[in-house]
Amino acid sequence: MDIFMQAAIEEARKGLAEGGIPIGSVIVYKGEILGRGHNRRVQNGSVVLHGEMDAFENAGRQPASVYRECTLYTTLSPCSMCSGAILLYGIPKVIIGENETFMGEEEHLRSRGVEVVLADNEECKNLMKAFIHDRPELWNEDIGE
Hints:
Radius of gyration: 14 Å
Strand order of the largest sheet: 2-1-3-4-5
Number of helices: 8
Shape: globular
Helix content: 40-55%
Order of helices and strands: HEEHHHEHEHEHH
């Protein structure tokens, strides 16, 4: 398995262990992890700290030229908010662990020139399926159902 997807899964597992939603993300620049994060909505009482947003926050302030050379890895298909940040910062490539439990804005990203790759990772699927089964109220809160 790709070491960067594995790092995103590690982040998802951290989030789950903290009582949160198991979604993780890493931002990679020139073969190194620039920022990593996981969904912290529950832990921080946040409305915006999805896994991708946490990874951006932890990457810190970077020039646009850096982000234009990054790849973002995420365990779950990115929602509208996270896709907006991907577009805003010009991330050219997104690798998605799975999109069976939630289909985000992949087509919108593609339509704006982002290379979107689906890893179809069983570990990502199993994490989300178990979480949705065990905590449907928390999942539905985040997803807005």
